[in-house]
Amino acid sequence: MTTAAPTTPPVELVGGAVAIGGRPVLRGIDLVVEPGAFVALLGPNGSGKSTLVRALTGLRPLASGTLRLFGTPFAQFHDWRRIGFVPQRSSAESGVPASVWETVAAGRLTRRRLLRPMSSSDKTAIADALELVGLADRAKDGVATLSGGQQQRVLIARALAGDPDLFFLDEPTAGVDARNQRALAEALGRLRDRGATIVLVAHELGPLAPLVERAVVMREGRIAYDGPPRHDDGHSPHDVHHHETLRPRHGLPLEGRWP
Ligand SMILES: Nc1ncnc2c1ncn2[C@@H]1O[C@H](COP(=O)(O)OP(=O)(O)OP(=O)(O)O)[C@@H](O)[C@H]1O
Could you tell me which CDD domains the record lists for this protein (predicted)? Predict the structure, then answer.
């Protein structure tokens, strides 16, 4: 991660639209993510959360709109090591019997010069990443021997090893038991404290709720609400039971509860 206090938004999407198979899936998406922000993308199944994350990482092309990453127009952006992407957990379960350490080391590849042996800084970054997600003692174990929640943390460690400034996580808590969700929240909190910008997709925030500063709620391919998160525990600094704090952007009504 860079040490100078950054001011350029890591993500600036204006008028973003995505079509899949000719069908519009995202429309009129304006999203600026400030440095150091912790943003949750929420919304019902099929509302476009994963597609938005994929569009922001270039995995899905935009049909229209302009995207800048760290101030650079997407077409000119090449500094991919600044971006970490943690896909949905199923991608970790390939048939390859990799160890935890090997999987995390793979995340270091973008930093290493081709065909150079691993440096001590590579090894330190891998050890730090494993430490941060609480799996230092499992480094030699096969990924397949870990629980789903632990596998999710391996994927996060893999992204961490590349020392990116901006993290996208697609449903990091899906199918993860409560204890691992708490460990995950702790790891993401430490990441945030290091100055990383975090954008994650979630169905339920659970233990992540105290970390989330901004909720972007998707509905039918559009942003239906963008603002302080709603916490049902009543301990939020933003008392979301008051409607004035739930003012949705674009003047759209916020229908019902979040899913
Ligand atoms: N590869 C694809 N082929 C066809 N349609 C797709 C594809 N990926 C997404 N879609 C469609 O795009 C819309 C948005 O899907 P997306 O996965 O982004 O939603 P989501 O909010 O992330 O949902 P979930 O919470 O179920 O993951 C849905 O209608 C979905 O069917």
Answer: ABC_Metallic_Cations
